[in-house]
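Render Outer envelope protein in 3D.
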Amino acid sequence: MAWGGLFLSWSRPSPEQQKACISSAGGFNYPSDFHCATSNPKLQTDEKHKALTSNGFSINRARILLGSGPETFRLAKSALLSWRHFALGWAMVDPETPVKKETRFCVCVKELVPWLMMPLEIAYVTSTVKRPAKGSFSFGSGTLQGHLLAGEERFSVEWDEDNKVWYEIVSFSKPADILSVIGYPYVLLRQKYFAQQSTQAMVKFVNSQKLESGRS
């Protein structure tokens, strides 16, 4: 059901409900000048950062070390491609969602009693195998009409020149409507909680896969 422009469900959203949410969503709900802004590794230090903050966006970042070497990087990339970073119980994305530019999907989040479905679209996908990083993979998704927030979020894994593999989340957001404004302090807390849970989920997945490989 839709309420106040938001997509809600009293139970875990079914694939049909998620498809209905996506089909009902409009285009990106944040300025085109900021589309793909999270693809810039220097987002937090350049002029784009100043432009975002002056336009009311909050910028968030979380980063964690997953391990080292090519096997860790391979596992981390596979985790992003299968949406393991969203396999949190209280938050989810259909794991069959292809990580390709222009793919639309729903982030489903359980808030108190109802589930909230928030539509997004993958704005870009990048993959590199050149120095100074030994390898990196990332994708960024932008919020659509019907999302609680307006903004963009990037998920990335990087195998750096020191042989370390990192998982990082970078996002910018602001309230999309008056309802979001009222609850924004709570939303910011939930964003930080998600970042904490998502980073731990990635560590757990990579480590569990290494253990499985060791047993085989």
